[in-house]
Amino acid sequence: MEVFSSPAFDEHEQVVFFFDRVSGLRAIIALHDTTLGPALGGCRMWPYATEADAITDVLRLSKGMTFKAAMADLPYGGGKTVIMGDPRTDKSEALFRALGRAVDSLGGRYYTGEDVGTSPQDMDWAGEETPYVLGRTRGGSSGDPSPVTARGVWFGIRAAVRHKLQRNDLEAVRVAVQGLGHVGYNVARLLAQDGARLIVADLDQARVERAADELGAKVASVDAILSTECDVLAPCALGGVLNDDTIPRLACQIVAGAANNQLLEDRHGTELHRRGILYAPDYVINAGGLINIALELEPGGYDRARALARVEAIGTTLAEVFERSAQTGLPPHEVADRVARERIAAGRERHSEPAPNPMPRRAAAAV
Ligand code: NAI
Q1: Other Cβ atoms within 10 Å of 102 Cβ, number
Q2: How far apart are CA 276 and CA 257, in angstroms?
């Protein structure tokens, strides 16, 4: 397959293939952009059908991390790892130790962590070989990111409601939540505390019943939730939910939820905009998990209260994106992409400025 000319490549700085004979590790680490700082991004383990699928996935995911970190105003870049293998059958201590050595060989340009198919235990094994691992089970770990992600989504929904509905509160605002997992349930709980009227759906009946009992939520079927009449649709399950099939059926004014890659393609964001539906770009509204884990790298170490406070900025950032979208007529997902690129370009400018008070040439030559 082509790599440099693949659409997913998009100016990646480095893409490295790792193979370990003993454990059978086959991993790809992609560093998209380290202008703003070392790259952060988790390690996904998945039984990819082809190597091309794995390459495309790692490239798309690492680029997404660059944008997510830039929009969260974090001093980090974007990267990602994929391991080709089945997480149910192919995991071993040797495999993750080999991964740790692979990460270590990048010398701190990249920090890994858990993602789909990997766990804090796996990160403990990798962490035996390198300091560049976040999200372990012990030693100042940031723990489950989901409550922090949920709080960021809640701030984001409030910003969207303020912009679109000119409302400062959520009393009686109708929110349809698709997916009541680690993030979705916490979002629903925060919304219920604000007096929002919830409509929920999940494949897992027990989760739906719990939301009905504890939060007074109405229940919709998984097929009907996207077309439920509501003010806000909050996709908190899968990616790709906004597509040619679903968009004509939407009956909401706002789409704002946690799921990654909600737009099947970029043009679907443009279509939402054309229909007057306000879309909160996913990598802006769901950055709470990244903000949470990045705190492990701060001098004072991780602090959950600080993580929860820090995600409030997600609401402010989204308000700015919506405002700029209104001024320029560009859809919010394009505005977010532009702002992220501007922040990276500004970082590049700063790096290319001469260092202040440089040593005089002659003195330097004499050293
Ligand atoms: P999870 O696996 O805990 O929850 C997903 C829920 O969605 C499950 O309850 C599942 O039964 C349900 N679901 C799946 N397909 C569905 C369908 N068609 N209709 C209705 N419900 C369906 O996952 P989690 O951690 O809550 O993440 C949710 C989304 O948010 C994912 O897209 C994830 O990538 C994204 N995200 C999560 C972050 C985190 O901190 N956990 C951070 C950033 C993004």
Answers
A1: 26
A2: 17
Query: Is the Cβ–Cβ distance between 258 and 150 less than 8 Å?
Result: yes
- For the range 299-302, what are the long-range contacts, defined as Cβ-Cβ under 8 Å and sequence gap of 24 or more? 301/140, 302/140, 302/141, 302/142
Q: Closest ligand 1 atom to the C-alpha of 207?
A: 9
Q: Which residue's CA lies nearest to atom 18 of ligand 1?
A: 222
Take residue 176 and report the two structure tokens written for it. 């349809």
pLDDT digits (tens, 9 = 90+) for 177-221: 999 999 999 999 999 999 999 999 999 999 999 999 999 999 999
The residue type of 192 is A
Tokens representing 155?
A: 């701030």
Average of per-residue pLDDT across 167-172: 97
At 256, give phi and psi (nearest 5°).
-150, 105
63 is catalytic: no
Residue type, 321: V
Q: At what angle do helices 51-71 and 332-352 cross, to 10 degrees?
A: 80
pTM of the model: 0.91
Residue 285 in contact with ligand 1 by CB distance below 6 A: no
